[in-house]
Amino acid sequence: MTPTERTIARLPAHLRRYVVSQDYDAYTPRDQAVWRHILRQLRSHLGDKAHPVYLEGLEATGIGVERIPSLDEMNEKLSKLGWAAVSVRGFIPPAVFTELQSLGVLAIAADIRTHEHIQYTPAPDIVHESAGHAPIIANARYAEYLKRCGLVGFKAIATVEDEAVFQAIRNLSVVKEDPTATPEEIAHAEARLEAANQSRRYVSESTRASRLYWWTAEYGMIGSLERPRIYGAGLLSSIGEAKHCLTAEVKKVPLSLVCADTEYDITRMQPQLFVARDFEHLFEVLAEFEATLAWKRGGDYGLKEAINARTVNHLVLSDGREITARVVEALPGARPVAEGLSSALVRLEGPVMVSRAGKAEGKPWPGLALVAFGAGELPDRGPFKVELASGLKLQGFAVGGGEVLNLRGELDGRPVELPSVSQLFLSQGLPSVAGGPADPGAWDRWFGELNAFAEGEGEAKARAKKATALHPSLAALYREVRTLRESKSVKPERLEQIARAATDFKDDWLLAVEVDELRKARA
């Protein structure tokens, strides 16, 4: 097995289905020229402007100047740092990206930007994902921050609107990278994103986590406000941003939790950036942010976040059981149940999955479920009556496996309308409420898409169009220049012929740059 195949084999199945082949032979000579142009400029510009680990980090992670990196070569190097990389197509769901990162796996977009977008691209590409994210991983403390940041993002609760925004951003990036896209298609994609953003009812935990990640791992600077250095992948992989960020036009402010409440625009260069004192500063802000999440706070706060989100999340009960479902209602009790918890009863909409330590137990329950809070026990089978500290009284018949029949209840003397058939759980408290299913793999097996035709389909089509949009004669010239670059013998007269032929393609400036470099190198 290759290093990349070994990496993929170690991944859970629900993550493997987002992995694609890098298909290295599909990169055109112009793709290679795009890579060379960007990396030459970045290395030249960032040598004394990026974090000191940057240049050695390129070498340590298998990233060279002359050609697009092979994931197999990268994985050989990354394994020595405790990391790995897999190839994906364009934008992948945030939960997948963050889970991979928490496992120490970089998700690297296989595609590369067009020469029209060489300065900056809003779409994920191999320049950003490899030359941006990988080099600073050579610093062990920063590498640990990336993993921790991935875990925090994975645990944050996302809303149904967050999913709509993600799909709109993904669609816009595909359209903008499609050379055949019409102005009308671009306008529609932009309007879709605007509508998705306007549909947000509130700023979710997941959105705040993505902002923190953006202003640190993507667009972070480090050191003093007067002479900061670059470590964020978005800055390290963009010629335009790398130059722009150090000018007086960009305001620099000290990193703080304010970054989680600061919006960003993925399609434009940033007007303001946050500067960390050092990498320990990142952990300080991350810990401060983590303490605000339902994952850490649990209780009534966690229930409110889950109800508002309208998405699948999971409750962690006092005995360690994890209940994955949609939380639809929380009934307040007459008296507090535990610190931070006054809810007496929570209604869950099925399917409902029970797990422990992230491992599902049995099949999901298809119907409704309830969690009642307070000290008490249910028999495995037979009739039962329980009275909880919240003022909630329940009675019914336990069938087994948590299923109850003929359930009736009252709260502080008033009847409570309950489903006659449901699953019922008792818990003394609610330590945590976290985003997504507790066992993503089991949930994906039961309820995931049977085929992932939507995952990467648009990006793959755009990539195919980019390849066919290149005029055959121009493609042949790029191919010849690539061959000449690797040859020890270059005839000056042939370079002149290629240079003259390139003038037939007015919109393609990159080939002329490639030829000029060869002229100077052979002079």
What is the share of helical residues? 40-55%
* Major β-sheet profile: 11 strands, mixed
Number of helices: 21
Stretches where pLDDT falls below 50 for ≥5 residues?
450-456
β-sheet strand percentage: 15-25%
**How many E-type strands?**
17
| CA(first)-CA(last) distance | 45 Å
Average pLDDT across residues? 90
Based on secondary structure, the structural category is alpha+beta
Looking at the structure, what is the overall shape?
elongated
Radius of gyration, taken over Cα atoms and rounded to an integer in Å: 27 Å
Could you describe the 3D structure shown?
- This protein is of the alpha+beta class and 523 residues long.
- Helix content is 43%, strand content 19%.
- It contains 21 helices and 17 strands.
- The strands form three sheets. Strands 7, 8, 9, 10, 11, 12, 13, 14, 15, 16 and 17 form an eleven-stranded mixed beta sheet that branches. The protein has a four-stranded mixed beta sheet with strand order 4-3-6-5. It has a two-stranded parallel sheet with strand order 1-2.
- Strand 7 and strand 8 form a beta hairpin.
- Helix 9 packs antiparallel against helix 10.
- The two termini are 45 Å apart.
- About 1% of the residues have low confidence.
